[in-house]
Amino acid sequence: MSAHARRADFFGNGGSLFWIQLVNALLTVITLGIYSFWAKTKVRDYLYGQTEFDGDRFSYRGTGMELFRGWLKAMGLLFLIGIGAGLVSLFVNDVMGALALYGAVFAWLFPKALLGARRYRLSRTSWRGIRFSFRGELGEFIGIFIPGIIFTTITLGLYYPFFHANVRRFLVEHSYYGTEPFDFDGEGGDLFGPHVLALVLTPLTLGLYWFWYAAFRHRYYWDHTAIDEGRFVSTVTGGGLLGLWVVNVLLLVVTLGIAMPWVKVRVVRYHCDNIALEGPVDLSAVAQDPDAAGAVGEELTDILDVDIVGADFFGL
Questions:
Q1: What are the Cα distances from residue 299, in Å, to 31, 67, 238, 304?
Q2: Integer Cα distance of 72 and 78 in angstroms
Q3: Parallel, antiparallel or unpaired: strands 275-278 and 175-177
Q4: In what helix (H) or strand (E) does residue 165 lie, and over which residues does it extend?
Q5: Taking CA 120 as the corner, what is the angle to CA 137 and CA 76, rounded to the nearest 5 degrees?
Q6: pLDDT for the residue numbered 316
Q7: H or E segment and range at residue 60
């Protein structure tokens, strides 16, 4: 990284996050789980607020009520899907047809959840008073996501780097900081060789080589992500990821999970310490261009136990 690169810093600490999560846990128990939506928001607000980029901190503007309403809508949607599949099975007397319908609906639901979560999180994140946004369309994403899943399955995982890179491109190129779009020029073919090597070496190294492949892919994705004339640079290493993981696991095992706040802080700080933006880009000239988004997709990702492919703390 050059000396003039715009850098990220994280000022949070595990002790502060521990007390936030302790209060969150108590209130979640007292309210029979209802407070969990506000708890999630408080943690995000703390982590984003303690993260600084080029001398200014991020701000998270989501609310617990938005997540709660999103959860209610998501549960209602899943309930209607279940009822619909049940009616097809009952009146058509075709179990396979009902299962096919259910599978088709979930093939639509997973991409919807991924995009909904990304749209919500970016729309509630701001830096220097300018909000981020996501403007990708579901239909276009399904055209990438479903064939990608099919080809990855048919090729026994060999197509995965192409699929993953295509998803990354879609997510990044439809993300904006105010009026300024992000750009991605990476290609799945560049990841294919390292991916195959990782498949071969992972069992031979008891899985340890995957940390080096994950680091390579992380660097590749960020090194091929740009905004205006600026390009991001990542210095994440396999040894760094392995060391981070080993210490985090030891902390969780020794403390029986109590050290989770410190683990979260360590992960965020590591990634902040290894990311920068280089090049001539005038971020002060970016104008606000808000894009409203609801939280239904956000809660669907939790219910379906999926997360944004290729995303990290910064949402890119």
A1: 19, 7, 32, 9
A2: 10
A3: unpaired
A4: helix 160-173
A5: 85
A6: 45
A7: strand 56-60
- Which of 182, 217, 173 is closest to 197 using CA atoms? 217
> In a 3-state reduction of DSSP, which class is residue 215?
helix
Those residues with Cβ within 8 angstroms of residue 205's Cβ, 6 or more apart along the chain or in another chain = none
Q: What's the token pair of residue 202?
A: 């992972």
Closest CA relative to residue 127, chosen from 66, 178, 190: 178
Contact 48, 93 (CB under 8 A): no
Residue 313: the pLDDT is 42
Quick check: helix, strand or coil at residue 141?
helix
Output the six-digit token pair for 148: 């990608």
Residue 220 and residue 215: Cα distance in Å, rounded? Answer: 8
Model confidence at 176: pLDDT above 90: yes
Can you tell me the distance from the alpha carbon of 98 to that of 85, in angstroms, rounded to the nearest whole number? Answer: 5
Amino acid residing at 150: I
| C-alpha torsion 264→265→269→271, nearest 10 | 10
* Beta pairing partners, 277: 6, 232
Q: Supply the pTM of this predicted model.
A: 0.85
Q: Which amino acid is at 316?
A: L
Return the amino acid letter for 235: T
Inter-residue contact 49 to 60 (CB < 8 Å): yes
Match 């750009």 to its residue by tokens.
183
Q: Domain locations in the chain?
A: 1-60+237-273
